[in-house]
From TrEMBL, chain B:
Catalyzes the removal of elemental sulfur and selenium atoms from L-cysteine, L-cystine, L-selenocysteine, and L-selenocystine to produce L-alanine. This is Cysteine desulfurase. It catalyses: (sulfur carrier)-H + L-cysteine = (sulfur carrier)-SH + L-alanine. One of its GO terms (biological process) is cysteine metabolic process. Its EC number is 2.8.1.7. Residues 25-394 form the Aminotransferase class V domain. Its cofactor is pyridoxal 5'-phosphate. Keywords: Pyridoxal phosphate, Transferase.
Length: 144, 407
């Protein structure tokens, strides 16, 4: 599936939940539980995303021209949000990630679910993922 | 006499709404209280009928505005039982009131090697202005420790006091935990060594009777918006002789007696500290908030809020995974807590989904959170318009949320 198809899939999943905020949050928290275990030793100051109210650690690696993200947070809702971003962006070419239009966030009404402060945090997460992608893109193009 | 809460709720239009499809339960009163219709009407009424700049205009509207503005100052005087209205300076809020003292009294009377005492319970706005002053003039900041219940260690305070102490700046009631400090004793002891005392009354003035003469505090800072009044408005009370000895805060209109290019003489208190056109509309509306409180009576308000706090503590403490934070013997109606295994942010978002407004996080008291070994708490804070049935809604929600991690 391409980035658009994954986003459409997420939008339809959230559609099923309807307008009930509580069930939406429970669902997001459940999604957070599916994140791969994040190594404790990588929970360093360096890997923390600045601008998030809760703590978020993010690392990225590149294999065969694809970027893979790993992340964790100390709050379950944030973990759920990260898991959605990873589902959409991880395992793709750097250029795809860097220029991805992540419209699903607005479509599933994330802003009203998590509030404006957390929305800033979410934007910071996306920015960091795209920065990683750009860095890998530059590295691949340079043939290093 | 007990209050008719249902009737009283009718005075607050904002309370009667749904949030995320659920009736609003507003438990974020320590952050700001809601405003009764009389305050809202006074604010719009001012702009509809009376708007004019105060103190200088030679016309009817200016006279009227000045009269209403000054009648709020008198109402504030009465509210905290100050000797005279001139001791009431109107500011932007508690934060500005404290900064005003730091910038004027602090710069003039606190020097290198002098000491300022605060406590672990302080809000950032009663920490940072003193840190800034200490950086500037080489004074030393001393901090009274607390016990695990969230009460200051009074004996440690006595040990910190010395001839070098110039100021004790302490919170009357903690915003994060609700702890009420023994301020009368603290003030008396501080005065014995010749130190002045500033009380941060942001949280206490809405719940407790605060009588500045009985307490004998030198300064009292508080905000209108936590007292059912408008935002952007606060009070600094100071004893006349101290205020008179302090240099002005900001330069501009209103604060002067005479200006020439050779020099300027300053106005009398309180105007010396009120440069520029003040927040006239909000000041005028604030009187209605004070009237609202005085009509109900502080004792009746306190009795109702104490009942709510006790009921909430009972209901929530039965929930598996509920961890109360701050269990001081003497508290205002603030209930801080954590849920085992859950981040306070997540709890806050889930409560919001049920229409319950609480505050989560460090509550601008990061050193206190560090002392307690916590990143933050969930804080439910009650005002006079809250009810036991709202607490039932909270308890029911917390029970459901806690169950996720505490089966």
């Amino acid at each position: 599936m391409d980035i658009k198809e994954v986003q459409e899939e997420i939008i339809s999943e959230f559609d099923i939940l309807g307008d009930d905020k509580e069930s939406t949050i429970f669902y997001i928290m459940e999604l957070g539980g599916n994140l791969d275990a994040f190594p404790e030793e990588q929970k360093t100051e360096e890997n923390i995303i600045k601008g998030c109210q809760s703590k978020v650690w993010l690392t990225a690696s590149e294999e065969d021209g694809k970027v893979h993200f790993h992340a964790d947070s100390n709050t379950d809702i944030t973990k759920g949000l990260i898991s959605l971003l990873i589902r959409v962006l991880s395992g793709r070419k750097p250029s795809e990630i860097a220029y991805a239009d992540l419209y699903f966030i607005d479509k599933i009404g994330m802003g009203s679910i998590i509030g404006s402060q957390r929305s800033n945090g979410l934007a910071a997460m996306i920015k960091q993922m795209k920065l990683y992608a750009l860095a890998f893109d530059a590295k691949l193009n340079a043939g290093i | 006499m007990s209050l008719n809460i249902e009737k009283l709720r009718g005075l607050f239009p904002i309370l009667h709404q749904e949030v995320h499809g659920k009736p609003l339960v507003y438990f974020d009163n320590a952050a700001t209280t809601q405003k009764p219709q009389a305050v809202i009407d006074a604010l719009t009424g001012y702009y509809q009928h009376d708007n004019a700049n105060i103190h200088r205009g030679a016309h009817a509207l200016a006279d009227r505005s000045t009269q209403y503005f000054e009648s709020t100052r008198e109402a504030v005087r009465d509210f905290i039982h100050a000797k005279e209205a001139a001791e009431i300076i109107l500011t932007k809020g508690t934060t500005e009131s404290i900064n005003l003292v730091a910038a004027t009294f602090g710069r003039k009377f606190i020097g290198e090697g002098d000491e300022i005492i605060i406590s672990t319970l302080e809000h950032h706005s009663n920490i940072v202005p003193w840190q800034m002053l200490c950086q500037e003039n080489g004074a030393i900041l001393k901090v009274i420790p607390i016990n695990d219940a969230g009460e200051i260690e009074y004996d440690e305070f006595l040990k910190l006091l010395s001839k070098r102490t110039k100021l004790v700046s302490i919170v009357h009631a903690s915003n994060a935990l609700g702890t009420i400090n023994p301020v009368k004793e603290i003030i008396a002891k501080a005065h014995e060594v010749g130190a002045r005392v500033l009380l941060d009354g942001a949280q206490s003035t809405s719940h407790l009777t605060v009588d500045v003469q009985a307490l004998d505090c030198d300064f009292l800072a508080f905000s209108a918006h936590k007292l059912y009044g408008p935002t952007g408005l606060g009070v600094l009370y100071g004893k006349r002789e101290i205020l008179e000895s302090m240099p002005p805060y900001q330069g501009g209109g209103e604060m002067i007696k005479e200006v020439s290019f050779d020099g300027t003489t300053y106005n009398e208190i309180p105007f010396k500290f009120e440069a520029g056109t003040p927040n006239i509309g909000d000041v005028i509306a604030f009187k209605k908030a004070l009237d609202f409180i005085q009509d109900l009576g502080k004792d009746a308000i306190k009795a109702h809020e104490d009942e709510l706090l006790q009921y909430a503590a009972e209901q929530l403490s039965e929930i598996k995974g509920f961890i109360p934070v701050g269990v001081a013997k003497d508290k205002v109606s603030v209930l801080s807590f954590c849920i085992n295994g859950m981040h306070p942010f997540d709890v806050g978002v889930m409560l919001d989904a049920r229409g319950i407004a609480v505050r989560t996080g460090h509550h601008c008291t990061q050193p206190l959170m560090k002392r307690l070994g916590l990143e933050g708490t969930v804080r439910a804070s009650f005002a006079v318009y809250n009810t036991k049935s709202e607490i039932d809604v909270l308890a029911d929600a917390v029970q459901k949320i806690a169950r996720i991690k505490n089966k």
